[in-house]
Amino acid sequence: xxxxxxxxxxxxxxxxxxxxxxxxxxxxxxxxxxxxxxxxxxxxxxxxxxxxxxxxxxxxxxxxxxxxxxxxxxxxxxxxxxxxxxxxxxxxxxxxxxxxxxxxxxxxxxxxxxxxxxxxxxxxxxxxxxxxxxxxxxxxxxxxxxxxxxxxxxxxxxxxxxxxxxxxxxxxxxxxxxxxxxxxxxxxxxxxxxxxxxxxxxxxxxxxxxxxxxxxxxxxxxxxxxxxxxxxxxxxxxxxxxxxxxxxxxxxxxxxxxxxxxxxxxxxxxxxxxxxxxxxxxxxxxxxxxxxxxxxxxxxxxxxxxxxxxxxxxxxxxxxxxxxxxxxxxxxxxxxxxxxxxxxxxxxxxxxxxxxxxxxxxxxxxxxxxxxxxxxxxxxxxxxxxxxxxxxxxxxxxxxxxxxxxxxxxxxxxxxxxxxxxxxxxxxxxxxxxxxxxxxxxxxxxxxxxxxxxxxxxxxxxxxxxxxxxxxxxxxxxxxxxxxxxxxxxxxxxxxxxxxxxxxxxxxxxxxxxxxxxxxxxxxxxxxxxxxxxxxxxxxxxxxxxxxxxxxxxxxxxxxxxxxxxxxxxxxxxxxxxxxxxxxxxxxxxxxxxxxxxxxxxxxxxxxxxxxxxxxxxxxxxxxxxxxxxxxxxxxxxxxxxxxxxxxxxxxxxxxxxxxxxxxxxxxxxxxxxxxxxxxxxxxxxxxxxxxxxxxxxxxxxxx
Length: 704
Description:
This protein is an alpha+beta fold. The protein contains twelve helices and 37 strands. The protein has a domain at 445-696: Alpha/Beta hydrolase fold, catalytic domain (Rossmann fold, 3-Layer(aba) Sandwich), CATH 3.40.50.
């Protein structure tokens, strides 16, 4: 009864909003008569649609009924078995269980540690101690006695952070990175703990062009003591770090150093006995180097530390190269016009280098391998009868792997496989309940398509259609956009691109589409990914619009007079650019947590792709949606959290002021004290989506 009443209220509000918009916006006159002539039958139909939608949203976001179960397992350091958290049927609590690879024996074990501390890289080489972080400092715990030693004491919870720690091969020393934010500017944030007298909290935030945190690398004895700091040259503008580890021995440290603009990358070896530092590798790129953003950083040592494998895009494709330890001798390990998506594992005993790729389909991901000696062509390891996305968690000895695979409409399955034959041993998690549920819900599989917009640009896209789709009819189009280098939205993988929400929108009678253009991190060559440099926004706007036009040209069931677009974060920015710069293409826009003034965004992300505003003023001008707000014609909804620590509220409120100055009508929804993911507060996720699809229906009458 409560859900029904809620839906009725939403319906009344929706109709009222339509009427209001009709009265205040002359362009909506054509909908006025349709709204006035609502029949009792259509009202009941709308009521039912909204009621079902609300229930579905609560199942998705409140009860997590569509969230796939993941395997919570960790390999033992010697590869003899693994530990996994399982649900105990009697107590209904999570218990830690050990499995032996030799015989499959299962043993329930006690652990004083939390799941997040049971990471392979945190366990000492002898398997008896574990590293963990607490309040900015490093601690070592003895797994037998539970005795804990604090090995750093200068860390704090939010100012000086000691982390990224790695055991030396002999287990006697630990190398770590200290991140000092003392010189990073403070910015105030309102903490609405007391509405009468709210508190103000100051946080460290390095925006474009400002001072970034300082970094240094130190070595400390595993039993505690003073830290020896490595003498790494520090440029005035600052720098970033990738891999920090041991150089295949306990006397030398490997440091991957990245320039502030991430256009240079170098590997340094520091001798902790002498303090001497040698550079063994260097590369640069006019835009950015391969390791600029999380994936594919670092190198892998081979041949007892006399050589290493590194990924580079210097020939236009992301490939693996083998270098001698001094960086002089070089050989290409994976030739061809394809990209390695990311490295997987080096199995030196078996003679294999494993990596992920998908040469024929940039939306998928498979495991490949190539001989380390270069004597064979690369071969696909993932079975040919399993299309989609695959991930492998290898055992330390590379003899086993947890293999997880899924596709867009099918939840993941995790199995134990024996390598290198890829022999399936047993299923570890099959998500059978969720799979059965999806079989009843997905009556029409998501369609993956390609859009040729000319100039040798072919973009991947997916499309969801209503259950009762009729190609002789016309349907409104709802576009989900991200369009930035952080992520692809067009992936044949479970749980991507707000899929559950978009399935609901499709059931409401819409075609839902997402398109990946140039600049997104698809495995289509370096030129594809770097095409957006040095300005995020303009190219994505043009190519997204061209993709929509191509859909309309090739698919007559697309109603080009009813097109909506929405996105989150960078996708929110691209939504604004679409509404402002392509007002005749897009009629409705929903921008969640956008950054309409990119020069006010954080330095570590924005400067990769655009440098600073002093270096690139025109790039920032072209990238900023606020500079094109005059073009708004359609219905725009801006959603933002007041507790943002990423795209701060003030970045968006500058745009709000500009739209008001221009006399543009728009809707603006703020969520109190919500951060970038809008996870705070009961009912937030459901409410945000309800607000979104309610706004989506405003300029149309098919759902009213």
